[in-house]
Amino acid sequence: MIDLYTWITPNGLKVAIALEEFGVPYRIHSIDITKGEQFGASYLDINPGGKIPAIIDNETGIKLTESSAILLYLAEKTGTYLPHKGVLRVQTLEWLMWQTGGLGPTLGHAHHFLTYHEGEAPFAEDLFRNDTRRLYGTLDARLADRPYLAGNYSIADMAAWPWVSRFTRHKIDLNDYPHVKRWYLHIAEREAVQRGYRVPHFTGAVPLP
Predict the structure, then answer these.
(1) CATH number for the domain running over 2-81
(2) Which keywords fit this entry according to its UniProt record (predicted)?
């Protein structure tokens, strides 16, 4: 049994979707970041950085933070959604790191400047609007000749999809990125994704373009 500490953010959804896909039993602990619960003493004991998500694997005693590290841990624990060796393993890790180091941070800033504080910082808005479009273009080019980011459906897709699900906050029309749109809609149909999208609670249906 895994204890999942999470909230309704793309990084939180990454892990919830992964747990559903892996079929690993888990308990949900809501950490309401709008109320500052991530800074409570009991949660800081789990993650001193005060971020979600985090897990505790009660089978192994491992306590783990950072969403992509959790995905990698679950893939290796279950032996699924990550090739064991070869080029596809390397490519899966490559695109997992692409999401971790580029897509996620940039789109997080896009949420801040393009949606929550629109009109307050024109320079930052232009910067993150342009970089967001660049990253969507990169994703679209990668998916032009393949159904998923690296071979079969993998933790790389699980990592990127929840961020793309916030496309309205990025001021992105998915019709401008047809390969991303096809990939996004195909993954959205997965039952595990639908279930994970409701964790820690239902906020609405998966957004559709």
Answers:
(1) 3.40.30.10
(2) Transferase
Helix axes 86-98, 67-78, angle to 10 degrees: 160
Q: Which amino acid is at 202?
A: F
Q: Strands 2-6 and 26-30: what pairing?
A: parallel
Contact in structure between 64 and 70 (CB atoms under 8 Å) = yes
Q: 66 phi and psi, to 5 degrees? A: 70, 115
Reported as a single tens digit per residue, the pLDDT across 64-98 is 999 999 999 999 999 999 999 999 999 999 999 99
**Domain residue limits, the chain:** 2-81, 86-190
Confidence of residue 126 (pLDDT cuts 50, 70, 90): very high
* pTM reported for the whole predicted model: 0.96
Question: Angle CA(199)–CA(201)–CA(205) in degrees, nearest 5?
Answer: 85
Mean pLDDT of 184-199: 98
Beta strands in 8-145 (DSSP E): 26-30, 54-57, 62-65
Domain 2-81 identical in fold to domain 86-190:
no
> What DSSP state is assigned to residue 62?
E
Q: May I ask the CATH architecture of the domain 86-190? A: Up-down Bundle (1.20)
Mean pLDDT of the chain: 97
Long-range contacts of 181-185 (CB under 8 A, 24+ apart): 181/209, 182/143, 183/143, 183/147, 183/148, 183/157, 184/209, 185/209
